């Protein structure tokens, strides 16, 4: 019997495009996905909860995790560190469960190096004007932070060709449906490969 590992899905895209909103709506429909909670050095926003939205750490604590190799990927994004704790992802995949990362683009490209078999999805805004409106209307960022995030967004959007899928977040439900279809299709692909492999093993044992 061949044990199947889980699939690693990476949802990435510029700040404010709607990754968190789409991920939460997706998780209401698909309860088989496991969300990997990131670590960050940024300040907690009102309403955010330790261990739910992020693990909030000091710069020193974060750098210690980097030095101990405890992060699967990390990036410095607009003056703060963000990273994915390695242990949770590796153990959950080993248990055969799918893991879902929601991270920015530099980090996604690092994951690509270590997990080329991951499924990389770029969430794209309908336009840069709409992206700007979404970040501003969310009301979490200073004017300076909005500018920094939009500057980063232009570089990030240029890298969308490095992804397996591009989903435009025009309407939340549309984006969720498309990501659900990607998840289902990736499962079909892996099952087909596993069944071909099983047949090959049976033939070679004859
Ligand atoms: N399809 C959509 N149409 C209109 N507004 C949207 C849509 N998707 C998300 N939003 C809104 O855009 C804002 C930014 O969304 P969200 O916080 O989910 O983005 P994000 O990509 O996770 O941002 P960050 O990377 O900074 O965490 C929120 O106010 C959210 O309600
Ligand atoms: N490389 C990583 N990026 C991450 C991670 N967790 C979140 N993020 C991304 O950072 C920006 C800013 O987030 P915000 O919460 O301050 O708005 C955004 O694009 C997130 O998706 C991570 O573990 N690694």
UniProtKB/TrEMBL annotation:
Molecular function GO terms recorded: ATP binding; GMP kinase activity
Location(s), subcellular: Cytoplasm
CDD domains per UniProt: GMPK (cd00071)
Guanylate kinase-like domain span: 6-184
Keyword tags: ATP-binding, Cytoplasm, Kinase, Nucleotide-binding, Transferase
Function recorded in the entry: Essential for recycling GMP and indirectly, cGMP.
Name of this chain's protein: Guanylate kinase
Origin species: Amphibacillus xylanus (strain ATCC 51415 / DSM 6626 / JCM 7361 / LMG 17667 / NBRC 15112 / Ep01)
This protein's encoding gene: gmk
């Amino acid at each position: 019997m061949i044990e199947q590992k889980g699939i690693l899905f990476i949802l990435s895209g510029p700040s404010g495009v709607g990754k968190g909103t789409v991920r939460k709506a997706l998780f209401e429909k698909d309860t088989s996905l496991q969300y990997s909670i990131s670590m960050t050095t940024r300040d907690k926003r009102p309403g955010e909860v330790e261990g739910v939205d992020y693990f909030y750490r000091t710069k020193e604590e974060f750098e210690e995790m980097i030095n101990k190799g405890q992060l699967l990927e990390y990036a410095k994004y607009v003056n703060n560190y963000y990273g994915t704790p390695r242990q949770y992802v590796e153990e959950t995949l080993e248990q055969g469960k799918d893991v879902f990362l929601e991270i920015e683009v530099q980090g996604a490209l690092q994951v690509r190096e270590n997990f080329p078999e991951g499924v990389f999805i770029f969430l794209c805004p309908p336009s840069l004007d709409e992206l700007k409106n979404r970040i501003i209307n969310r009301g979490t960022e200073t004017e300076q932070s909005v500018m920094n995030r939009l500057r980063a967004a232009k570089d990030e959007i240029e890298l969308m060709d490095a992804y397996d899928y591009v989903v435009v977040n025009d309407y939340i439900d549309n984006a969720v449906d498309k990501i659900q279809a990607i998840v289902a299709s990736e499962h079909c692909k892996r099952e087909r490969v596993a069944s071909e492999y099983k047949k090959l093993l049976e033939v070679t044992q004859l």
